[in-house]
Amino acid sequence: MIVDIHGHLGSPGDFFVPEPSAQWLLRMADRVGIDAIGVSHFVALNLDARRGNTMAIDLATQYPGRLGAWLVANPHDRDGDRVIADQLDVPGVWGLKVHPDFHSVPVLDRRYERYLRLAADHSVPVLSHGQTRSDYSDPADLAEVARRHPGLTLLVGHAGLWTDGFARAAELAAAQPGLHLEIAGSRLTTRWLERMVAIAGADKVLFGTDANFLDPRVGLGKVVHSRLADADRELVLGGNAVRLLGRRLPPHRQPSREQDLLGRRG
Ligand SMILES: [Zn+2]
Question: Which residues crowd ion ligand 1, with CB under 5 Å?
Answer without folding.
Answer: 210
